[in-house]
Every structure is written in structure tokens, then in C-alpha cells.
């Protein structure tokens, strides 16, 4: 009475392909081509998610699509800020592009983490930039200082990444 002795459900050949044929829209390829041409990343969508979705659409449209064509579709929908960072790296195939996207994603994710920025800049330098000199009080929020802090933080992150590469 072991579970491996129980016979599985009966298999009927061709059911899956018949169901897919019946429920696939008539203009399925044209629909996916239109989606691929119009594809842009969403507001909260990461570049990595966008990359994988575009590649999936390319596969649906043409499983044998050339690398250059896939890259063209990926490049056409990127946000300008991402395009600016990745264009100079000139990835020549999808795998290289994926590696650069992962590096970019890691850089932007780290830039958003305040704890990481404190570790890079140090507590004293950060408090000085926020206008808190020689005291341990919680700094007050000053929007005019935020841009300088973000620019400084991103500059340090970029320099660190360049040293690592």
C-alpha cells in the first residue's frame, strides 16, 4: 500500500494541444507583437522585471528571434535614466545586458538604503551635511539639503562601483 503503487490519472494524448488550440486567440502573434512594440517599464517595475518580460514577449512572437532584435526591443523601452547608465557599457548580447542590468539594479537598490549610506559616509559627515553640528539630536528634515545629500551619496556609490570593476 505504498503511495508509489497507486496508478496515476489516465493520460489522453493530444488533450493539451487541443485545449491550447481552442483557447488561443486567432491573432495571438499579432497581439504579442503589438505588446512588444508598445512595451515600457511600469512606474514600480524594476529594470530586471522589464528585461525578463520583454524577452518573454520576444519568445512568444518568434522563438528564433536574433539577439540584436531582442536587444533593440529592450533598449527602445528603457527609462532615460537607465538608458544613460547602460548605453555607455555597450552590451552586445542579452547575457551581457542582463549582467549590466543586475549591476545597475544593485547600485540603485543600495543607493536607496539609508543604513548603507550611513556606513559609506559616516555618521558625523551625514549629520554635518544635514546641518546638525556637534549634537546628538535627531536631524530635522530640510528639503534644500536633500538634493545635495542624494547627489553626494550617488557620487560615492558610483566611485566605489568603478573601483570594484
Written overview of the protein:
This protein has nine helices and no strands. With 165 residues, the protein is mainly alpha-helical. It has a domain of 114 residues. The longest helix is centred in the C-terminal third of the chain and has 22 residues. It is elongated. This is Retrotransposon gag domain-containing protein.
Write the layout of secondary structure elements.
Layout: H1 15-23, H2 28-38, H3 47-61, H4 67-77, H5 80-87, H6 94-112, H7 114-121, H8 123-129, H9 143-164
Protein name: Retrotransposon gag domain-containing protein
In short:
It comes from Daphnia magna. The protein has 165 residues and is mainly alpha-helical. It has helices at 15-23, 28-38, 47-61, 67-77, 80-87, 94-112, 114-121, 123-129, 143-164.
